[in-house]
Amino acid sequence: MNIRSERLEMTPLTVDDWPLFYTLHNTPEVIAQCFDPVDDAVLQQKFQQRLVPWHKEAEHWQCLVIRQHDTGEAIGVTGMCLSQGRAEVGYLLLPDFYGQGYGTESLQALINWAVSTQGIVSFKAAVTEGNVA
Known about the structure:
By secondary structure, the protein is α+β, with helices and mostly antiparallel strands. The protein is built from 4 helices and 6 strands.
């Protein structure tokens, strides 16, 4: 699976992406916008769950690494989890990439892919209080 947009390429998470995943979940700016901190054992478990190949009947999160086309640099993750035919979508970006429209672009590409290839037509997202972006 490879999802592309104007500036981004999104591919499934691999074991080599642990440093990115760890950094995203341990950076204070990301934590403040998205979730409560978790200990390393719980984080490793979440990472392992996201390595499992995703399919439409899966009950776990699909996790895709977001990379810039021009540099190949990993800037975050995006993905979705299906429940009762509705996909919850979300993303995490490294703070250096905030405010540049990458989150929106990644989600639009993911939603377009989900609609055109998976037939998913219902989506939702949870936003942490205070996350005005």
